[in-house]
Specification:
By secondary structure, the protein is an alpha+beta fold. It has a single domain, classed as NADH Oxidase (3-Layer(aba) Sandwich), CATH 3.40.109.10. The chain has five helices and four strands, in the order ααβαβαβαβ. Strands 1-2-4-3 form a four-stranded antiparallel beta sheet, sandwiched between helices. The chain is globular, with a radius of gyration of 17 Å. The model has no long low-confidence stretch (mean pLDDT 97). The structure holds flavin mononucleotide. Flavin mononucleotide (FMN) binds next to strand 3.
């Protein structure tokens, strides 16, 4: 496969994975994943992100009850909290940090797929209760807002990506 095909294949094959083996995720892989996260585009190139990378038992256990859709942490072996750093935003365009952190989170998922690992995005911001739980658990400073959590591990059983192709959603030249 040439480089373009590999990249497109990775994007199209990405899928959420919620069941993992007991094998740990190496720190080399976790660092590569964060490198991908930091490669995302951002408004004014402000890069308003910070990452809490965790693989300790206590935190993995805490995440299981973070909210009603976080049970994949019963088997996940690592996770990344993507946070927005409000000190790296400008007043006029402040809300664009959400898009920046979204792009960064998607890059995490693509890196996970490329490394033949599995993972899933957990929505945090702007749900107040979820944000608060992470702020308290990690004792986050005032300028740091938790945005998403990604659960990571070695896939238990290979899953097929969903086919989301829908020609009706393309509006050529006019609505
Ligand atoms: C903003 C956002 C929040 C999500 N939150 C959760 C979540 O809390 N728990 C979960 O299991 N999946 C969560 N997902 C994953 C979606 O359920 C998943 O992406 C969707 O079903 C499409 O499946 P796919 O990722 O395999 O294409 C979230 C995805 C996004 C983009």
């Amino acid at each position: 496969m040439d480089k373009t095909a590999i990249v497109l294949d990775n994007i199209i094959n990405r899928k959420s994975v919620r069941e993992f083996t007991q094998e740990k995720v190496s720190h080399t892989d976790l660092e590569l994943i964060v490198k991908a996260a930091m490669s995302a585009p951002s408004a004014l190139n402000l890069q308003p992100w910070e990452f809490i990378v965790f693989d300790d038992e206590k935190t993995l256990e805490y995440m299981v009850d973070l909210h009603e859709y976080s049970k994949m942490f019963k088997t996940a072996q690592a996770g990344i909290v993507v946070c927005g750093n409000m000190d790296r935003t400008v007043e006029t365009y402040r809300q664009l940090w959400v898009q920046d952190c979204s792009a960064s989170t998607q890059n995490i998922l693509l890196a996970i797929e490329a490394l033949k690992l599995g993972g899933v995005w957990l929505g945090i911001y702007p749900i107040e209760e979820r944000c608060q739980k992470l702020i308290e658990y990690f004792n986050l400073p005032d300028n740091i807002v938790p945005f998403s959590v990604v659960a990571i591990g070695h896939t238990l059983k290979e899953e097929e990506p969903k086919n989301k192709w829908d020609e009706k959603k393309i509006h050529w030249n006019k609505w």
